[in-house]
From TrEMBL:
This is Presequence protease, mitochondrial. GO terms for biological process: protein processing. Its main location: mitochondrion. InterPro entries: Metalloenz_LuxS/M16, Pept_M16_N, Peptidase_M16_C, Peptidase_M16C_assoc, PreP_C. Belongs to the peptidase M16 family. PreP subfamily.
């Protein structure tokens, strides 16, 4: 699915999933996918927060050591921005005042390494391991269970490091701000923490001095996992090659072969200059008073610093007189969709240096231009590169990138045959030439601008957090973060430029692409034995390190390992850490009023009327219980292509164009939901969703009507292109989401719903798509999809949810009635709220214990063990939901601190399985044993009442997570969870006792009748010889 244009512009950075429980690295700083979109004020106020701020903080006013530089209103985002400067240190401060209770704090630093030792990344980990005020081990992770935060994280980018959090609780905000500020400005930075988080030499068996010395360290193992993903490797090499002269020419996260060059002393020196207030940016957001933030930050931290020159400037990249090129090698991807037959695993791309990131308007124009060039089937490069099936998808990094000093644009393909590389490069040049001659249809420009404007009104529950992420790259490089948010003025200026010069965009194409000599061509191809080559390089480096050791060094390494092991086992005094209490959790929750209706002869409709800012949200579930077994595996494929093939008189290009002009996209996905109280019963289907401005509802429903009644599942070339793209996206997700695939695989043998989820979104689905992408003729598959669509695209078994503003619900229901009446119906058309059933996925399927090792050429493992859980309203569900957070203390210590994995833990999904997992883990069977040890740890009662209280706090971070207006009522609609059920579920978690936790650990984990185990990773000789394991090679 395409990213919204607004998201890609405003955020100025590519985000993906990052550390919620752990921090992560990417050359393009990565975290959760969160759109920067508009949220209306959450509560009415007699005097708006913006008015109050303007009155209290006039420009030039000195407040708590800061001086107010500017106060600006951004009307389109309903916010008031206050820029301040700390007088003593020069620290930059931005406060965004807004009527939003989900307040945000972030402190960031420009971090500009000049080598690939990963010093900013390792420093990010190490500062969170203890500070002057909070000297316990790893207070960051301890706070995860002492807070009701809606987000906690820390991230390293190519030239910055940030530490953001969000919370709805004022006391929690102050607690977390104190912990974060003490961590960054007064960290302990002890050597043992550096060795644990960064890298160290240690005996393979820490208790056996005769065992060989090996490399260990969390970041060392993390980065091995990062670059096991060839797409991430390609992205990194592309940035290094395009912008080589300064900090972008190195790997800020750390190259595993270079990380062991970093010393503890170098880390401390880097902190002294980079983590200084003179190099800092402070950000606060929400409805809490600014003055109290300023006073706390100044009095407790900044007042003890003087101004320095940190010398962290990032210069513009010198322009080249001619283009450059390079080639890199990677591992063979066993799951890659090889377009064009054997050998189609080459990636090729051309990247262009654009303009300084601080030129806000020009980058806005370039963003729109790049969207027009690449986004959707009407884009020139989609037509010229994807549709001829020269590759399986766009190359990594394709599109506009606005996170470095000089922004850039990349275009290319992955899944290319080596003999087609030159043709791809030629097509890129020719496409630019064609666009420069022909320009873009006005309807395409209008569609991109509509997406921007709709995005300004679309509301999310994490607006402030996304805003912090958005402004960081620009602000970090001395750009104006407030100016960048003034989207309406840029849109108006852009429209005026187009009116005055119809060839405005064509001239930009010539300027930035045809006449731009600063372009970098990169190819990447798999090399057999690549992983072994990396392993040999690591072993050679290890041998060099070991050979340089004298006897004193060896004794010191042994003693250091023992000291670290003992430290990791110590019981800690956590009394210094602030905390909330369970009493801070509300016992009652505000209801979400909904209205149940029946329209068009029996279709159940749920109406919710929150303040949606003039947008109507539409969702529909189509039941798949009746789909025959031979078609059921194709349900996710139908979801992937249904709105991308055309409908009625519209081919796929016109349908996409119309969707962009009047909606935020037409989305289809698979759906499963466990029954709230019946064990083994579950709802299955596909869910359709879209949103639009109220006045476009007729148009949006008309598009859905045409998809239902006239979908064009007959274009074999188009279908083949989509299959290749879906297969490529899935293959690319494996290394990044290996723990998710491991959990889905582990659970597949222990419940019918989990088995269906594995078939629809697990490794089975990935392998199915790989197989389809390698077929020369997909006619039979397309015919099966036509059969499946005929079964599903009607009113039978359909239910609908609509969220719209109170003043529009009458019109919305009238339009919905007309839409539903026009759909096909059967004589038995009748929909229930949820069609829960216990139908097995396969008639012959029985629940059973299973161990599966999925062998992939990765240098790290993803492990999981799954056991049957209980329904949402089962009396034991509260204890089972709290139990993973209690176990986190044990699992984090054993898997991450001692084992060196990037992360690990447990999670319990009500109605689904109880799963243990590890992520980017150097161990395999050892970690599986740790999962069992965690159960024994609970059964032994090795925890306190305080531990249980903290586990409840951690659990309620997700239970009581904020809900956006468009998502209100969806828990009821999708899973049958009414407000009454939700309240009962919360009560069960709140009332969990220590004995309850021991009881459920024994009943559901220790004495579980069946369990599933899954390991994704390299060949394991011990497992291969174990007859209880099923080994799968790809």
């Amino acid at each position: 699915m395409r990213n919204m244009a607004l998201v890609r512009y405003i955020r100025n950075v590519t985000w993906a999933r990052k550390r919620i429980l752990h921090n992560n690295y990417s050359p393009r700083i990565l975290t959760k996918r969160t759109a920067v979109t508009n949220t209306e004020p959450t509560k009415p106020t007699a005097v708006s927060i913006g008015d109050a701020v303007r009155a209290e903080f006039p420009v030039g006013e000195e407040v708590c050591g800061f001086v107010v530089r500017t106060v600006e209103e951004v009307k389109e985002l309903h916010l008031t921005a206050v820029r301040l400067e700390h007088l003593a240190t020069g620290a930059d401060y931005l406060h965004v005042a807004r009527d939003d209770a989900n307040n945000v704090f972030s402190v960031g630093f420009r971090t500009t390494p000049m080598d690939s030792t990963g010093v900013p990344h390792i420093l990010e980990h190490t500062v969170l391991c203890g500070s002057r005020k909070y000297p316990c081990r790893d207070p960051f992770f301890k706070m995860l269970n002492r807070s009701l935060s809606t987000f906690m994280n820390a991230m390293t980018g190519s030239d910055f490091t940030i530490y953001p959090f969000s919370t709805q609780h004022p006391a929690d905000f102050k607690n977390l701000m104190s912990v974060y500020l003490d961590a960054v400005f007064r960290p302990n930075l002890v050597e043992l923490d550096f060795l644990q988080e960064g890298w160290r030499l240690e005996h393979q068996d820490v208790n056996d001095q005769s065992s060989p010395l090996v490399f260990k360290g969390v970041v060392f193992n993390e980065m091995k996992g990062v670059f096991a993903d060839s797409q991430r490797l390609f992205m990194q090499k592309l940035q290094n090659g395009l912008l080589p002269s300064h900090t972008y020419g190195v790997v800020s996260g750390g190259d595993p072969i270079t990380i062991p060059q970093l010393t503890w002393e170098q880390l401390r020196h880097f902190h002294a200059y980079h983590y200084h207030p003179s190099n800092a940016h402070f950000f606060t957001y929400g409805d809490q008073p600014l003055a109290q933030h300023l006073k706390f930050i100044n009095d407790n931290y900044l007042s003890s610093f003087d101004r320095i020159d940190p010398k962290t400037e990032v210069p513009e990249e010198p322009s080249w007189s001619q283009g450059r090129s390079d080639h890199v090698e990677c591992g063979v991807d066993p799951m890659a969709a090889a377009a064009g037959g054997e050998g189609g695993q080459t990636s090729v791309a051309v990247a262009y240096k654009l303009v300084n990131i601080t030129d806000s308007y020009e980058n806005f124009v370039l963003h729109i231009l790049c969207e027009l060039l690449t986004s959707g089937p009407n884009a020139p490069f989609y037509k010229s590169l994807l549709e001829p099936q020269l590759g399986s998808g766009f190359s990594p990094s394709a599109g506009y990138d606005g996170h470095t000093r000089n922004t850039s644009f990349t275009i290319g393909l992955q899944g290319v045959r080596p003999q087609d590389v030159d043709q791809v490069l030629s097509i890129i040049d020719n496409t630019f030439q064609q666009v420069a001659q022909e320009g873009f249809p006005q309807s395409r420009v209008d569609a991109v601008l509509h997406t921007l404007e709709l995005g300004l009104k679309h509301q999310t529950s994490s607006f402030g957090l996304a805003l912090a992420m958005t402004i960081t790259p620009l602000w970090n490089l001395d750009g104006d973060p407030v100016e960048a948010l003034k989207i309406n003025s840029k849109i108006n200026k852009f429209r005026k430029c187009l009116d005055e010069n119809p060839k405005y965009l064509q001239e930009k194409v010539r300027q930035y692409f045809l006449q731009n000599n600063h372009k970098y061509s990169l190819t990447m191809a798999p090399k057999p034995g690549y992983e072994e080559q990396l392993q040999v390089a690591e072993e050679d480096l290890l041998a060099q390190k070991v050979s340089a050791l004298n006897e004193h060094d060896k004794i010191q390494i042994w003693e250091q390992g023992q000291t670290l092991a003992h430290k990791q086992e110590e019981e800690e005094d956590l009394s210094s850490l602030p905390t909330l209490r369970v009493s801070d959790i509300n016992r009652t929750v505000s209801p979400t009023p909904v209205l149940d209706l029946q329209l068009a002869g029996g279709v159940n409709v749920q109406l919710c009327q929150p303040p949606t800012n003039g947008i109507t949200y539409f969702s529909a579930v189509l039941d798949t219980q009746h789909v025959p077994p031979h078609l059921r595996p194709l349900v996710p494929l139908l979801c992937g292509v249904l709105t991308s093939m055309g409908a009625g008189h519209m081919d796929f290009r016109e349908l996409d164009q119309q969707a962009d002009l009047v909606t935020g996209g037409l989305h289809v996905d698979t759906h499963t939901a466990a029954h709230p109280y019946h064990v083994g019963h579950f709802d299955q289907g596909i869910v359709l969703s879209s949103h639009c401005l109220n006045h476009n509802l007729d148009h949006m429903l008309d598009l859905w009507s045409r998809v239902f009644t006239e979908v064009r599942l007959n274009d074999l070339d188009r279908f083949t292109t989509l299959v290749n793209m879906i297969a490529t996206d899935l293959s690319n997700s494996l290394v990044y989401s290996g723990h998710r695939y491991a959990m889905t695989s582990a659970a597949a043998s222990i419940s019918h719903m989990s088995a269906l989820q594995e078939e629809w979104c697990g490794l089975s689905w990935l392998r199915s798509m790989k197989s389809l992408s390698q077929k020369k003729d997909l006619s039979d598959t397309l015919e099966q999809l036509r059969q499946l669509a005929a079964l599903l695209l009607n009113r039978e078994g359909m239910r609908v949810a609509v969220n719209t503003t109170p003043d529009y619900h009458t019109q919305a229901l009238s339009k919905l009635e007309s839409f539903l009446s026009g759909l096909h119906a059967t004589t038995t058309s009748s929909a229930t709220h949820n069609n829960f059933s216990s139908t097995p996925v396969k008639e012959e399927f029985t629940l059973h214990t299973r161990k599966t090792h999925h062998v992939f050429p990765f240098p790290v493992n993803f492990a999981s063990m799954a056991l049957p859980g209980v329904p949402y309203l089962h009396p034991d569900v509260g204890a089972l939901r709290v139990l993973p957070r209690l176990m986190f203390r044990f699992l984090h210590r054993e898997i991450r601190e001692k084992g060196g994995a990037y992360g690990g833990g447990a999670m319990a999904t009500p109605g689904g399985p109880f799963c243990f997992y590890s992520y980017r883990d150097p161990h395999s069977t050892q970690t599986l044993a740790t999962f069992s040890d965690a159960v024994e740890w609970v059964l032994a009662g090795n925890f306190s009442e305080r531990d249980v209280e903290e586990a409840k706090l951690g659990t309620f971070q997700s239970i009581d997570a904020p809900v956006s207006p468009g998502a209100q009522g969806m828990r009821r609609f999708l899973a049958g969870i009414t407000d009454k059920y939700f309240s009962e579920h919360r009560q069960l978690a709140l009332d969990t006792s220590p004995q309850d936790l021991i009881t459920v650990a024994r009943t559901y984990l220790s004495l579980a009748p069946i369990q599933g185990t899954s390991l994704i990773g390299p060949h394991n000789e011990d497992i291969a010889k174990d007859g209880f394991w099923n080994t799968v090679h790809d």
